[in-house]
Prior knowledge:
This protein has 561 residues and is of the alpha/beta class. The protein has 3 domains: 2-135 and 324-343, Nucleotidyltransferase, domain 5 (2-Layer Sandwich), CATH 3.30.420.40; 172-322, Nucleotidyltransferase, domain 5 (2-Layer Sandwich); 363-560, Carbamoyltransferase, C-terminal domain (DHBP synthase). Strands 13-21-20-14-15-19-16-18-17 form a 9-stranded mixed beta sheet, sandwiched between helices. Strand 7 (153-161) and strand 8 (164-172) form a beta hairpin. The longest helix has 29 residues, at 262-290. The termini are far apart.
Amino acid sequence: MYILGVSAYYHDSAAALIKDGKVIAAAEEERFTRVKHDNSFPFNAIDFCLRYAGIAINDVKYVAFYEKPLRKFERIIQTFVETYPFSYIPFWRAIPDWIINKLTIKSTIRKKLGYRGKILFVPHHEAHAASTFYPSPFNKAAILTVDGVGEWKTVGLYIGNRSDILPLKEIHFPSSLGLLYSTFTAFLGFKVNEDEWKVMGLAAYGKPRYYEKFKKIVDVDEDGSFSLNMKYFAFRESFRMWSKEIEKLFGRPRKPEDKINQKHADIAASLQKITEEIYIKILNHLYSLTRVKNLCIAGGVALNAVANGKIYSQTPFKRVFIQGAAGDSGAALGAALFVYHYLLRKKRNFVQRHLYFGPAYSNKYIKNFLDKVGAKYEFLEDSELIQKVATLLAKNKVVGWFRGRMEFGPRALGARSILANPKPKWMKDRVNEIKRRETFRPFAGSVLQEKVHEYFEVPERNHYSPFMIFAFKVKKEKRKNISAITHVDGTCRIQTVNSKDNGIYYDLIKEFYNITKIPVILNTSFNLRGEPIVCRPEEAYEDFIKTNMDYLVLENYLTYR
């Protein structure tokens, strides 16, 4: 049985295909259109999923959409009525998109895809919950979903038990932890639904001097329930996220072209502190409701790696699974899994240990391309390639690494990555220059599974964290060995790597360890600022040529200048 999950029309549109409950293909639309965070209907991603499976659209038993559009439109109408006349212009500008696209999803699937089977609409937060619980290793778990907003819900507390996901509590729009974070992402001159992790990185450079001011704009109870004071926000009735009252509290907002100063870092630190406080209180309350020590989390806020790193020390949860594609792209996967397990009552038979669900390209395809563009290259067998690239990394060369199936979700996990030696402190600036990123942004590290406890303050020996979604403190005595990826607050976002799940990528890090005695490498996504992660060899080569990256690996071909 094939089920196709689809998310579209907000941000990070995606498609995911499951076969008998197992994920076989998934990708974001942006990777094919090259429009970052593309929110259009994911025709290209759907086409990839079907081609990968070798099936036609009508071999799919169900198409599952990741939210209920009519319920969401109900919220839009009610918000318009409550905020009229201030919301008049934004509302009428939004209506054409609703009429043409968002309320005609079934028609789009029928007419443009030619699909004749059953179409089901899954509530947004249930899709998030399904995306993290069903692929988890737990038969029973507490579940938290937290994001900007679905139809009405912004936070959902659940308990998962085998094929059931049962709701416990929820928080509704306009009170939203995701929208709070996005409001200040915009206030600090960054892009909403795109640059929130820039704010998270900037927070480490500041002090939470504005924390008491944040307590004026968001009221938090001991159980983690919260409400935004809407006199400080304008996202319901205008094109701007905040009202003039925010500027009275915090002063002039930063323009994108303004230089970042200490005040901006302090605002980011204060925002991160209040976010973590709410997050941890919600989780502790969730535990009090469930008394289950297994935890699953999804939703855009679940990508806050710094907050995630504190779950083990500040809550009673002992085992935590966070969907690596925690945002709306992952909800496409969740919609499909919700239909299979919750609606059809099928038993669970899949544990997600990686996110390599995208396209791959053969050596033959790559050789033809490299010959066509006149590239300089050499072909190396896997063992030769590992030895050569590990040696290059040890010599402080920066290498683009393009191997196997592309990752699903926002993180590069060793399939579409830029790799470097984590030891020299200056390497951070070098790679930021290559990627054309802001200098304050930190880099993640890929670490050998069996060595993670030697370098990081993880909750257990051989801690398993495959999706680069937790930030942990770097042990003080090891910071000199990985100074390029140790953030100013002493943390590092990590990806644990093992032979079974990561194959040749594990072998590469192991060889780097053999040479340097450092079991960690700097790993960042293979893209330049403003671009999606590369999907095809052509895009990888173009980025290689446009920058001063030293080498490029395309499957078994080592390309150089």
